What we know:
374 residues, alpha+beta, 3-stranded antiparallel beta sheet, 10 strands, 43% helix, binds 2-acetamido-2-deoxy-1-O-phosphono-alpha-D-glucopyranose, binds magnesium ion
Amino acid sequence: MKKAEDTLWEVLEAFAFGDPVVGAVRYGQGHINDTFCVHTQPEDRCCRRFILQRMSAAAFKRPDQLMENITGVTEFLAREIKKNGGDPSREALQVIRPKNGGSYYTDSAGGAWRLYPYVEDTVCYQSAQTAELFAASGRAFGRFQRLLKDYPAETLHETIPHFHDTEDRLAKLKAAIAEDKMGRVKDCQEEISFVLAREKDCSVALQALRDGKIPLRVTHNDTKLNNVLMDKDTGNGLCIIDLDTVMPGLSINDFGDSIRFGANHSAEDERDLSKVNLDADLFAVYTKAFLEGAEGSLTDGEIMLLPWGAKLMTLECGIRFLTDDLVGDEYFHISRERQNLDRCRTQFKLVAGMEEQWERLMAIVEPYRHERTV
Length: 374
Ligand code: ADP
Ligand code: GN1
Ligand code: MG
């Protein structure tokens, strides 16, 4: 695929910004899409900003289906937010259609692009700098799940098949090990053993779903802290972004992915592993906030599996980083050599930290059960 910059000016022509475009720069720290911030200059006021994204062709094979999901979900959210007295123009993403109709633009090189207004007066954090901030993100993701409670799940396309199918992620890792196309397996023996020792764990959430112990819901599936925009003045979680993976899924995975990214004090690619550990206090803070935001909609079965959601999302993410390292970094953007292996190592360190503190994590979620056992 060509570099996004190669067709950027063609793409800018394809949308009606209303005012002259004065520039576009790469923006944000997402690992998947090519994101640009576009500035326009109205005559009578200061600049306006937009988020222009080329959707990742490696991740999303059907941009038409992806955008059908996103327009459906954003329009549904706007109606729900309005009903609740909120401001849909700030609390939900809005798709701006290209001049030639449809919900996205395909450039001359085949790249698929979409445009959103920039949600101003918000901050996007890369780490949970305070417990309050982490709690605010938890309330926002819990609320997001509740807002989508009545969304017609059967109309959603599966934008990435088997996205949180941990058994399938494990199978893909094994295939990458067998192929060893970059000759990197020799550097990853410890990480491979770590996964193989937890092979059975990979089935825990899926088995609970198969057994009817937890329900399938409409979920976000990528609940990193940097996928929620926080209101700059109130500090509240204002707008959930990165809706590419909104699909039928498990509530415990939405909970777990936030814990994976936010309940520790180091970057996802930190090389000094002594700095990486699960902070159980932050786990407790997030549990309370997420369940508040979800307003009692989680069942006891889901509540008691929240620690498993955290462990499995972290293990699975480590498996995905390791697989991508072994196949030569085809999926996650990297900015340095072997960054995906570094990312994998932080995830496994977090998993080990969760295992060490397992009883404490279970004790944190237990009081939220609706039917307590005495
Ligand atoms: P990726 O899938 O690559 O993570 P995202 O949709 O999360 O892409 O966008 C990347 C970053 O761009 C976000 O983390 C955030 O900083 C910023 N961003 C995305 N959409 C908006 C928006 N509408 N307003 C303000 N910032 C945004
Ligand atoms: C990706 O898109 P972004 O950067 O928010 C990935 C997530 C991973 C995450 C790891 C569509 O999230 O699944 O957990 O990187 N998104 C997709 O940081 O694969
Ligand atoms: Mg993102």
